[in-house]
Amino acid sequence: MIRQPQPRMPKASKDPRPFKRAILKLSGEALRGSGSRDNISPEIVDRIAIEIREAVSEGLQLGIVVGGGNFWRGASASARGMDRATADYVGMLATVMNALALEGALEHHGVSCCVQSAIEMKNVAETFIRRKAEKQLDAGKVVIFGAGTGNPFFSTDTTAALRASEMGADVILKATQVDGVYDCDPRGNPDAVRYETRTAISRTLCAGCRSGHWSTANDPTLAEY
């Protein structure tokens, strides 16, 4: 009697991490100490770099989208009479300055990283290429995404959701002044609605808001960081 080979049962994963690849949305204000006159506080950036090093040392694949609010806010400049598109481009350049500061701190602590900019500036950063960024994440390199989406009228929160979709991230971690994603700014509207998850591209306009909030994600979880 010939015994038929039994199918092999897949081994249970021993990886305790709830997710493997993440996008961290880091606000520009997070890089500046409270009450500091500096736009970027080196000691704050250094502390953030150490925390990132600890996370990636455990095998986390991490992409970072950094804002530019410690230097500039396009919406505020537009409200004071500046052309909105031009104001947003200035803000994109601010995010690249923050990205370079974070890159320097990470490299100081031995973390392999690079800055990819949505606006070409080859002397200081790589140009964003989706497949290249994916390969860098696979190799364990931290990828810092600068210059937002490269387009005016879109926030860096939108960029985080977009890059999360493009990179196939499991989660978006949000290290900003608000505790999640809302349909508009909760600091200006107490009736703002907080979203726990987002599964589609959407634009919501609510009463009392000067502009809409765009968000897009391929069903990544939105988590407070």
CATH hierarchy: architecture:
3-Layer(aba) Sandwich
Number of continuous helical runs: 5
Q: What number of structural domains do the residues give? A: 1
Distance between the termini: 61 Å
Report Rg. Answer: 19 Å
Number of strands: 11
Q: What sort of overall outline do the alpha carbons produce when their principal axes are compared?
A: globular
State the helical fraction.
25-40%
Q: Give the full name of the CATH homologous superfamily.
A: Acetylglutamate kinase-like
Give a short account of the largest sheet.
Answer: 7 strands, parallel
Structural class: alpha/beta
The CATH class label is: Alpha Beta
Strand percentage, roughly?
15-25%
Enumerate the spans where pLDDT stays under 50 for 5 or more consecutive residues.
200-225
Structure write-up:
α1 packs across α3. By secondary structure, the chain is of the alpha/beta class. The C terminus is likely disordered. The chain has a 7-stranded parallel β-sheet, sandwiched between helices. It has a two-stranded antiparallel ribbon with strand order 7-8. Strands 9-10 form a two-stranded antiparallel sheet. The protein is globular, with a radius of gyration of 19 Å. It has one domain: Acetylglutamate kinase-like (Carbamate kinase), CATH 3.40.1160.10. A hairpin with an 8-residue loop joins β9 and β10. The protein contains 5 helices and 11 strands.
